[in-house]
Amino acid sequence: MTMIPMQVSKASAGATTTYDPEEMDRINQENLKELKSMRERTNWEIEEERKQFIFDLIDLIKDWRWPLPNLHLEDILRKEEIHWLLTESMVGDLNYDGERIIDFVARTDYKDMPDVNEDGKPPSVRTTPVHHAFGHRKETWTIQYLFKIYDRFDVNYMDEFGLTHFHVACVYGLGDVVEKFLELGQDPNCLVPETAQSPLHLALNHCSRQVTELLLKYGANPNLTDKNFSTPLHIICKIQHSDVLANMLFELANDKYEPVQVDAQNKFGNTPLNLTVVSDNKIVAELLLKKGVIRI
């Protein structure tokens, strides 16, 4: 690994370390040259060589200094190769090194370039690294970087199980991503087929106030039930200190969905009020009583 000489300046609170810009640029150019060479000597049709390319890339980017000026990844790798690289980074055994690759690609400002139909739009049924990252429970920052790469919000990519990019954004509480989808006409009530959970269920299960507020403002139905017949209110009542979410649900729910069903029973016979007892959620229990709960 090439070492970069550092310039050290003293600050009043201690020493501040900075990299020599000229030396940094020189190292980056050397790394860019090596990346091109790596691709040229790799037969992409051979799996072993593709895997070796990944390992070599991991070693290379460990020594790559940010930012990454003039690095046009699409001029070095074909879009199918980049898609494979990102997918393998999520589904393989690379762990943190896989996330490092996602970070690297996102910082190059590379954007996914999907194939399009006759109408000029990509097909919505397409499994992407975003789906794989969700399935492998990757960190939030990894999902955020992937959405910088897969940044089409006018199409909601759906995998074979019906899980969409919009669902993933709701789970991870990515308010900026959720808002972009909604602004472009995304249905705030699209269900996850396997669980029948609505985006509101997903956001509340992960206590995301920002996403919950956005969904309600864009017309999310607070009375939809999942496969266990639980409403969003059931979820709120299972969470301690959830009075802000409860008030939000009642105050922001679209008029056409009123009233919010405060007495709904889930598959197990529990009402929202029952669940406040289990979670010792006294503030929300009092709110429900004010809203006219009948069934206890």
UniProtKB/TrEMBL annotation:
Stored InterPro entries: Ankyrin_rpt, Ankyrin_rpt-contain_sf, Cul2-RING_E3_ligase_SR
Residue spans of the ANK repeats: 195-227
The keyword Ion transport belongs to this UniProt entry's keyword annotation: no
Superkingdom assignment: Eukaryota
Keyword annotations from UniProtKB, A to Z: ANK repeat
Signal peptide as annotated in the record: none
Keyword Metal-binding assigned: no
Protein name: Uncharacterized protein
Organism: Trichogramma brassicae
Taxonomic lineage of the native organism: Eukaryota, Metazoa, Ecdysozoa, Arthropoda, Hexapoda
